[in-house]
């Protein structure tokens, strides 16, 4: 039977929520799956240029991994038409959505009937941390911890919050962004960073977006080190500071996101003209997460 899988993009490392806090956004990876004689992945959008069309595709590799995990020797062949609005290697969860897509593809084709919690555990084991993958599965904001077990809290994000998304025209690999981070933090830095993260989470629950924006900019865990990899960061932060609650690096970067009220949309034409080399998008949180649509 033909079906579609729709997975939202994610923004992770929300300020001081390094490797632990992420939010699903309304950009999507969509798979249109139909039975076939052989496996074939077809890219229908520019964001997927260069993605493998055969079994070396990451989505297939993840699906195969899940199949083996649950005792299946293989997967029934399918043609998978892929459409994506999520730019690659920009800090918006493009690789994480592929991981989630592979898990969901295996779940549907093999009728595994996995719960969202089980899918999130598998995705976190593959990804290494939950802040990108878990929101794509659950929707909303997910605050997660992955240690001996996966624990999380999901918080819906209200529609009054707008994500002003600024996407540079170059990629930044997660491995490169992690390479600039220190091997260890001092006790003083850890206490400071943890207190900022704690207040950030409290602000999320109170929907105090101004406080959340302030706390995001005070992060000491990753942004001070990664800003040098995104030359536009300080310029853009200063450029729009008067009109937003706060600005942070999305994921590993280079995408920058500012939290703002809806009225900010009136400024976008002016900003696009002033800074044309940045792709500007106004996004909202997706509170649904991964969807499967059967036809």
Task: Report what the structure shows.
Helix content is 34%, strand content 26%. The chain is α+β, with helices and mostly antiparallel strands. It folds into two domains: 3-156 and 286-294, Ribosomal Protein S5, domain 2 (2-Layer Sandwich); 162-283, GHMP kinase, C-terminal domain (Alpha-Beta Plaits). Strands 1, 2, 3, 4, 5, 6 and 11 form a seven-stranded mixed sheet that branches. Strands 8-9-7-10 form a four-stranded antiparallel sheet, with helices on both faces. The longest helix is centred in the middle third of the chain and has 20 residues, at 187-206. The model has no long low-confidence stretch (mean pLDDT 94).
Count of discrete domains: 2
Profile the largest sheet.
7 strands, mixed
Which overall shape is indicated by the principal axes computed on the Cα atoms? globular
Give the low-pLDDT segments. Answer: none
Count of extended strands: 11
C-alpha termini separation: 8 Å
CATH top level of the largest domain is: Alpha Beta
Number of helices: 10
What fold name goes in the CATH topology slot of the largest domain?
Ribosomal Protein S5, domain 2
The CATH architecture designation of the largest domain is 2-Layer Sandwich
Content of β-strand = 25-35%
Average pLDDT figure = 94
* H/E topology pattern: EEEHEHHHEEEHHHHHEEHEE
Whole-angstrom Rg: 19 Å
Helical content band: 25-40%
- Category from helices, strands and their pairing: alpha+beta
Keywords: Amino-acid biosynthesis, ATP-binding, Cytoplasm, Kinase, Nucleotide-binding, Threonine biosynthesis, Transferase
Protein name: Homoserine kinase
InterPro entries: GHMP_kinase_C_dom, GHMP_kinase_C_sf, GHMP_kinase_N_dom, GHMP_knse_ATP-bd_CS, Homoserine_kinase, Ribosomal_Su5_D2-typ_SF, Ribsml_uS5_D2-typ_fold_subgr
Pfam families: GHMP_kinases_C, GHMP_kinases_N
